[in-house]
Structures are given as C-alpha cells and as structure tokens.
Design a protein that fits this description.
The protein has no helices and 52 strands. The protein is mainly beta. The strands form twelve sheets. Strands 1-46-51-48-49 form a five-stranded antiparallel sheet, with no helix packed on it. Strands 2-3-52-47-50 form a five-stranded antiparallel sheet, with no helix packed on it. Strands 8-11-16-13-14 form a five-stranded antiparallel sheet, with no helix packed on it.
Length: about 650
C-alpha cells in the first residue's frame, strides 16, 4: 500500500481500523512525558511528567489522591467489604476481586463498603475493572443504594463517577447482575480532589525529552537520569499504597558527578546499577556494587563498584541489558563482557559490534532484539545476536518505508500483547507503528493521526495485555491524557461513554470537547454530528448508552498497479486503466467509501430504528472510470469498525 493512515496492518493479512482514544484527564503545559509504572500483573499507574512536576494517575484516569476506601486493592482479602450474592460467587485475592454470576436469570453479586470521609463535599468514585462487562457502580446510603449517584457500564473497562456527599459517610457498591457474566476488579476508590498528589521535579519542559528511565528489579522503584540533574528515584510502597519521590543519595558517588554533569542513561544488569555518559565524561560508565544499587564504592573485589572509559570515540547515549550489556554511542554499538562470564572490576572488556551510531532516545527491547534510533532520528535499527557471525548485527527496519519516520523520531515504545506493535512518536505530532512478527518474517508500517499534537506515548502490561496511553496537545492548548482501550471497541478520539438511566437526550460531562464538532453513537447507532456547548449536547432522540468523541478518518490506498503490457514484456505505466469490477472483502465491518463511492448501507431486511449490523462480505463496485494509476482508496469516516481482508478486481487497459 501507498497509504496506511489510521489503519493497523495485522500480521495475518487484513488492514484493521485502529481503535479510538478514551479521554482520561487534562493537564496544563506545552510539553509532557508519560511513564507507565506497573506495580504487578493487575495494578499499574501512569505518571505524567510536566514542567517541574510529576503527577501520578490511575489507569481509570483519576489523579492519585487520598483514598477513603478501606482495603481498596483487596490485599487483605475481604477485610472491609460486605458481600451480597444470589447464585453468584465472589473471590478475593491480592489486587483482584472476581464477581462471577451463575446462569440463573436472577443471579447477582455485589461488594460494598461504608466509607467515612473527613467532610461533606465533592468526591469521585472509581472502579478499576480489568476484564468483563457489564457492571454497575453505585454510591448511596446503604449497600446497593444509588442515592448519590449510579453509572451502568455496558462496554467494560474502568469508570469514574462524580458525586456530592451531604455528610461524612456513604456506601460504595460494585454490582454484577448479568447471568454468566464475570468481572475482575483490581481496585475501588472514593477520592477527594483536594488531596491530589503532585511531586515537584527539577526538570523543565525543555529537559523532559532527554529523560531516561530504569526500573529496578522487583518493580517498585524507578530511577530517572538526565545529564544536567542528579539521579532521582520514585518508590511505591506496596503495603501502604504510598508513593515517594526524591533525589538519590548515593554512597561514594564518583567525584566527577556534579553540577550539569550527571549520567544521562542507566540500566540494571547482573545485579548492578550501571550509569554512564555524563557531559564531561561522555565515554565513561560506572557500575554499583553487586546487589547494592546505590553504592558506588570502588575497589578490587569481585562485588565492588567499577568504572570504565571506552577507548572508542563516541558519547554514551543508551545502555540496555539483554544477553550482554549493550551500549549505544553516537558513533557505534558496543557490548560489555568478561572472560569468566561475570563482569567484575578486574574482568571487563568492551567490544564494538557495529558503527551505525544512535540518537539520544532510550533503546527498547523487542523480543530478543534491541530497537534504537539512528543519529539523525529518521531511522529505526534492530540489533540482535547472530550465532553464525558470533556478533551483534544491526539492520534498518525502516528501509522499505523510509518516509514513515522522516519528520524525526521523538520517542519509541513496544507493546507486545495483543498485536506486537512497535511505536514511534514523531516530531510532527503523529505516530507511526510497526506490526512485527520476527519469527514469521512479517512486518508492516502504518501511520496514525490522533488530531492535535501528540507529544508522548507509553504502554505496559496489565492482566496479560499491554495498555497504551497517549499525551496529546489539542485544540485548546492543553495536554490531554488519553487511553487506547483494549476492552472498548470505539472509533472516535478523546471519547467518553455516558450511561443515561433512565433513557434521555441530554449528555453532559463533555467539558474537554467544548466548542468541538463531535461524532455520536446512541445505543450503537450513528447519530448526526453535534457541537458541544456548555459541556453538553442534546440528542435528537432518547438513548441509554451514548458515546461522544472526535472524528478520525481511516484511509488505505494501494500502490499504482502495473500488470505490464503485451504479455508483461514492457511496463503498462503509460496506459489508461479501468476496473470493470472491483471487489473489496470486508470482515465484520460497516461499508467504507471506495474510490469516492459508498455502497448502500442499509438492507430492506433491517428493522426500522435498528442499526444495520456489521457485514462480512465482498463489496462490488463497478464502472470506476479510466486513469493511469489504477489505485484503490478505501476510506472509513463513520465511528464504526472497518477491516479490509483483500482487494481484487477485473481490469482492462487501453493505450488511449
């Protein structure tokens, strides 16, 4: 294809329309950075790094604050929770509560808690649900009561509910009343906006692009490196559910570390914390004592800290731990090894593997390979160990699609599950992704535009899948944190889902879309576009589940077609061509626009006031007219799915 915009190349063949982005939160600032911080398999946080401040956010979008719920992550089993079940089972385990309904029509199960708050006022109730749907969140005066608020979640995923409490007590309830439905909840909260947490940092907006991160073994500590500032660390206390952030107090740090001369990158390898690439000593790296990550006391013993200066010219730009300790410099790629197999102060050697050079971006491990950015920020190289050559070799994975990153790569990221996606945030505010299956020798680039100016992206594992988040500077100059949900198949950006009970026509809670023309789905059907005024829209008819968001258009365009002339003996480029018949095979899709034409989207058999179901079919288009390129363009502009399995046709060619 020539164009793959807002379609994802699937490793099994089809082009699949990308999912939309769910609105999470809004922040002030010109630039920002995201850090995904997984605590364990079921709990994670997002850290939004802004101008001299870092803000922790839950995966549901709530800024971390004082949680008034007792045992919110079920780490003490059922302590604090009241159960109400009928033909249902409830299972508590650390960081997860499973509510599983039986097959009976009257089955239900709920967990609830009487929560005490310091004073009456505005609060936000939150459920972090990691799998399953539907369910209901209620806040009221008793278990299962909704006096202060209720939200029915039909599409799964995390949810938040704003409530005003007249007193200091309230019940928070999570209810599953759908037969044969299982929901897994990783956390429940009742938060007060007045207790939100923010950490001051030394980094300005101009600094955050050069930050490198290194997670310590164990997962509860992340270190931050920048060449102009002391190393900082973020610690999460699992038992108390509390974060702390401060500069690292090293033991016997190198004398050369000082003002505007600190390590720019670091990694954990063989039980040591490796740091390197200061401004004044760009070719030097240091390693801590074994299993004492903050002790840099030098010595000759095997477990003492060590220091090494590379003989090859080139400043250290990244360090990575795989089979070997890998170091990327501005002029080449190196490995750090030892004769006896374990690196010590008396047994260390550095060997250059290639001479392509690297940009300042942190490298990313992709399976058994390491992806890094070229010095000019326009290419992505993959580095892997080859047994036959007994060397780490590097190849350009953008070779056949060099245009895709020409605006310059800002950050790179890898999300393994479910679709093996390597992602580049570009300097032009868009995003390019690579679908990559090395074992099958399959890779395909695709480009995505989320509107506005995309400044950062981060992903990480949760319950076996990788969650993705983007930070986008939109129309009002603010930074929008948005999630790419796995459980919610929505095809709008910055979308919100509003549940109206009873059914109604007024949709509120749209302040972040003020003044924007938005697309709307009502109970799954396309509603005419609306303009958000006063943070709300008025529907033309009543609905229960309403999805509102910004339109994005997905475009797939094939390369010019040349079947040759006179039996293939010469090029057919000069000839006029026409598709007499063109077939576009769709899978579970709404009909797109093909070369400017959208086939009829409703059938006589579809009942009135019912959305036309998605179709799996071969769409036939005829009489497309002559041109010399014979390209096919598929466009989906509706907020509905589109998967293109194949394009084929019957073509004629004329010299006229």
């Amino acid at each position: 294809v020539q164009t793959m915009e807002n379609f994802r190349a699937d490793s099994r063949g089809p082009a699949i329309r990308r999912l939309g982005s769910r609105y999470v939160n809004t922040f002030d600032g010109e630039d920002g950075r995201l850090l995904y911080f997984p605590v364990n398999e079921t709990t994670a946080f997002i850290f939004v790094i802004l101008d001299m401040v870092m803000i922790p956010v839950t995966t549901s979008g709530i800024q971390v604050a004082t949680n008034h719920v007792t045992n919110p992550h079920f780490r003490e089993g059922s302590t604090g929770w009241t159960e109400d079940v009928l033909n249902c089972t409830i299972t508590f385990s650390p960081d997860l509560c499973r509510i599983a309904c039986g097959t009976q029509g009257n089955a239900y199960g709920s967990i609830g808690q009487a929560v005490t708050v310091p004073a009456s006022g505005d609060f936000t109730a939150v459920v972090n649900e990691v799998s399953g749907s539907p369910y209901t969140l209620l806040v009221g005066t008793a278990l299962g009561d909704n006096t202060y608020g209720q939200v029915d979640v039909s599409t799964g995923g995390p949810v938040q509910l704003s409530v005003t409490l007249p007193g200091t007590t309230a019940w928070v309830t999570v209810l599953n009343n759908t037969p044969e439905n299982i929901i897994d909840v990783s956390g429940v909260g009742l938060f007060s906006p007045s207790t939100e947490i923010e950490f001051p940092t030394p980094w300005t907006e101009q600094d955050i692009q050069d930050l490198h991160f290194a997670a310590a073994p164990g997962g509860n500590t992340v270190y931050f490196m920048h060449p102009n500032y002391p190393v900082q660390k973020l610690i999460y206390d699992y038992d108390t559910d509390v974060f702390s952030f401060a500069a690292v107090i090293f033991t016997s740090p190198p004398d050369v570390w000082g003002t505007n001369n600190y390590p720019r990158t670091g990694v954990f390898h063989e039980g040591r914390f490796w740091l390197g690439g200061t401004n004044n000593e760009p070719q030097t790296f240091w390693a801590s004592k074994s299993n004492a990550y903050e002790d840099f006391t030098l010595g000759s013993l095997a477990d003492d800290a060590l220091q090494f200066t590379m003989a090859k010219l080139g400043d250290i730009r990244w360090m990575a731990s795989t089979k070997n300790l890998l170091i990327g410099t501005g002029l080449g790629e190196h490995i750090v090894t030892s004769v006896e197999g374990v690196i010590t102060p008396g047994d260390i050697q550095v060997t250059q593997q290639s001479a392509y050079g690297s940009g300042h971006q942190q490298a990313v491990q992709v399976g058994d390979q390491l992806f890094y950015v070229s010095p000019d920020n326009t290419k992505i190289r993959a580095m892997q160990y080859e047994w036959a050559a007994d060397n780490w070799l590097s190849n350009d994975v953008t070779f056949f699609s060099e245009h895709i990153t020409q605006s310059g790569v800002r950050y790179i990221d890898w999300a393994q599950n479910p679709n093996n996606q390597f992602t580049c945030v570009l300097n032009d505010g868009t995003l390019s992704s690579l679908t990559y299956e090395r074992g099958e020798e399959i890779y395909g680039w695709h480009h995505h535009n989320y509107g506005g100016q995309l400044v950062s992206q981060a992903s990480g594992p949760l319950q076996g899948l990788d969650l993705k988040f983007v930070l986008n500077k939109r129309y009002d100059g603010k930074l929008y944190l948005e999630a790419i949900p796995i459980l919610q198949e929505v095809y709008m950006d910055s979308f919100v889902i509003e549940e109206l009970d009873p059914a109604g026509t007024t949709v509120t809670g749209l302040d972040h879309l003020e003044g924007e023309t938005v697309q709307v789905l009502t109970d799954g059907a396309v509603h005419p576009d609306k303009v958000v005024t006063g943070g709300e829209i008025e529907l033309a008819w009543e609905a229960t589940t309403v999805v509102v968001g910004l339109q994005f258009i997905s475009t797939l365009k094939t390369l010019p077609f040349d079947k040759g002339g006179d039996g293939g003996r010469y090029s057919g480029q000069p000839y006029m061509k026409r598709y007499n018949k063109l077939f576009v095979t769709l899978l579970d899709s709404t009909k797109p626009i093909v070369n400017g034409d959208r086939q009829p989207t409703r059938h006589p058999s579809t009942l009135m006031d019912t959305r036309e179901p998605n179709q799996t079919e071969r769409t036939l288009i005829v009489e497309l007219g002559y041109d010399r390129l014979a390209q096919v363009t598929v466009v989906q502009d509706l907020p509905l799915p589109c998967t293109v399995v194949s394009i084929s046709g019957e073509q004629e060619m004329s010299i006229l």
